[in-house]
């Protein structure tokens, strides 16, 4: 694999991205300003800030992960890239370069706007505090930007493949540690260290390692709890490389071999994942991918005896979502939630057929989605008397009671939609079972 795309490729793609938006925004009706954002203070921690990440919209159009910049677009004058002036403090505290920026800085932005007075200003990215504009218009423009961003270009895909390779190495380092007596936190530490050794700049989100019952907490933060023999461990982790994320989950048995029912539950989720990925191709509605995953889990739960009845009806009645209580996936790319915030818009007037769908669009070539069905025994859901009443016949509740400590199984891969199907970007990550 190439180390990283050449800067010439990035320059080509930045031009392509901006040209695509210039066409979409020909009738923007004003000046569009896209703010990088500024570091966010940690409450009560004086001058300390959270790790800065430029707003994804700014990063996508500038490839610059620096605070304070504003990328401006005017339908007649095109793009102007205002970077933040460099201060002595930037040089003192952060080692900013001695040379001043060669292009325009944000000190010139007001003058540039005055020269276009009369044109309304619409902010995207991270607007400065106090900025005012028409939020509905901003939403429209953001939507067309999200439509461009959804189709990953070669630079983005190269970075995602790099992130996936680092994550594959990280999981491979974690698997031999899954023995009784090792803690969730120890696994997290070794996994992340290996990701960093393989080029990760950061993790794309807080690493999840949950042993036993903790595997049923969807975003579980690893603790000092030590694994016990024969329990499941769910690991959901992703390296980030030059802004681009991977997002991968595997569920492994402590000791290297699944015990009887664990094997069946893992098999159910694996079949659901494969069935969902096999259906991924341009034009297929994402809600259909979710339905197929749910249906496969319903079939599996009937086979093991947890659910009773016709699998299609178990999807229709919602009984299956008691065990699969999240969406089947989301866009991934520039960050772990790529081009988010707007994608349900095309279905604004149509009720969502399933709970928790994060996107509700037909698949397009170039999109990267996670496919991540799961099956969990969550006490907060399964001990709810309302659910027990509503699904009294469909669920074998005494079997559920026996399984409440089992935790859960999730399998997650990152899937590129191609012209005629799909490619799994993350299949080098070890999968047992
Ligand atoms: N890692 C969070 C998620 O899968 O969405
Ligand atoms: Mn994940
Ligand atoms: Mn995910």
Shape: globular
Which ligands accompany this protein? glycine, manganese (II) ion
- The first-level CATH class name of the largest domain: Alpha Beta
Class inferred from helices and paired strands: alpha+beta
User: Which range best describes the helical content: under 10%, 10-25%, 25-40%, 40-55%, 55-70% or over 70%?
Assistant: 25-40%
Give the helices and strands as they follow along the chain.
HEHEEHHEHHHEEEEEEHHHEEHHHEEE
Structural domain count: 2
First-to-last CA distance? 28 Å
- Output the radius of gyration: 24 Å
Biggest pleated-sheet summary = 4 strands, mixed
Nearest-integer average pLDDT? 94
User: What is the number of beta strands?
Assistant: 15
CATH superfamily of the largest domain: Creatinase/methionine aminopeptidase superfamily
Strand % is: 5-15%
Strand order of the largest sheet: 3-2-1-4
Number of helices: 13
User: If you consult CATH, what is the topology of the largest domain?
Assistant: Creatine Amidinohydrolase
Poorly predicted tracts of residues: none
What is the CATH architecture assignment of the largest domain? Answer: Alpha-Beta Complex
